Amino acid sequence: MATTPARLDPADLLAVGDLLTDEERLIRDTVRRFADERIRPEIGDWFERGVFPVRELAPELGRLGVLGMHLDGYGCTGSTATAYGVACMELEAADSGLRSFVSVQGSLAMRSIHAFGSEEQKQQWLPDLAAGRAIGCFALTEPDFGSDPANMRTRARRKGEDWVLGGSKMWITNGSVSDVAVVWAQTEEGVRGFLVPRDTPGFTANDVHGKLSLRASVTSELVLDEVLLPADAMLPGVRGLKGPLSSLNEARYGILWGTVGAARDCYTTALDYARTRIQFERPIAGFQLTQQKLVEMMLEVEKAYLVAVRIGRLKDEGRSLPAHISFGKLNNVRTALEIARSARTILGANGITTEYPVLRHANNLESVLTYEGTSEIHTLVLGEAITGESAYR
């Protein structure tokens, strides 16, 4: 009996989405609808003005269920890693700043409290963070120490039963709007994490201005000037860099998915534009050079999508390693950035305006390329994984 040929979807030619479960596809479609209806009509204006309405959006994202969605209990939905990745893909298809907010809230701030906090700390903060009633940030990077956090200068010293923190942190997403900062500092017993409420005396946050990337995102410098904290402000469950680095790995996982969304958005925007842009009395989609660009973009989007699904499944099976995450971030961010640049050439002059998302994605991806592990660092992680030799020093 003859079968009807499958219809090809130009946005997903290999039907990679069929590899997702019904629940994962439902999450994909729900988050995509939210992004399309709530974010896309506004994001160009937010990016141009350099604003992001965090307090307005956080409760909406909480009701959507994406804040800390891969964590269990305390108001979190306990989804699979792949489902969380799919949500990140749809969030970043709208804008990297939106995915960054969700990622920092859930994979960095909430995950650190969930994994390393006391029961009292979890009960105090996680339900409000999951609902978007509170906002968190994660403070590891310093002005002079990004890829080398082991040499951070922020210090915490004992004062009786209390702690006193001093130092500064830089490039902190959500910093000035956070109700609680997860601050990592050197102590006599190694690196420890501390929960610093926003109204703590000596704690200030100053926004970074003049950004050409991630403009629809709050980025801050944190200053800790003899900040006095009670003993129970310290996260008791971890000591050393394995704490912050394990949370960073969770955030990097979201990035390897998110950038697939940004890449897909650039590709489909260029495809739609090429079909309707008339030059020499026909759509530019009919020219060989344009088709070559579109095909190359489509190939790379699908390969990045397959990489994300595979790493998601490994993570759900408890078999993912840091090298897998580095593989995904290195490949997918680099791929997305090249797709954005190629898509811009198809849009011509129209591609430089906020009417189209392509150059906004390209600018954002320049930050995504270097934050939470530069390409060089991930290259060295993978180099060590395949050779057994460390080349960091």
Automatic annotation (TrEMBL):
Gene3D superfamilies: Acyl-CoA dehydrogenase/oxidase, N-terminal domain, Butyryl-CoA Dehydrogenase, subunit A, domain 2, Butyryl-CoA Dehydrogenase, subunit A, domain 3. Pfam families: Acyl-CoA_dh_1, Acyl-CoA_dh_M, Acyl-CoA_dh_N. Residues 137-227 form the Acyl-CoA oxidase/dehydrogenase middle domain. One of its GO terms (biological process) is fatty acid beta-oxidation using acyl-CoA dehydrogenase. Residues 21-132 form the Acyl-CoA dehydrogenase/oxidase N-terminal domain. It comes from the Bacteria. Keywords: FAD, Flavoprotein, Oxidoreductase, Transit peptide. Its cofactor is FAD. The keyword Transit peptide applies. GO terms for molecular function: fatty-acyl-CoA binding; flavin adenine dinucleotide binding; glutaryl-CoA dehydrogenase activity. Residues 239-386 form the Acyl-CoA dehydrogenase/oxidase C-terminal domain. The keyword Transit peptide applies. Belongs to the acyl-CoA dehydrogenase family. This is Acyl-CoA dehydrogenase family protein. It comes from Kitasatospora camelliae.
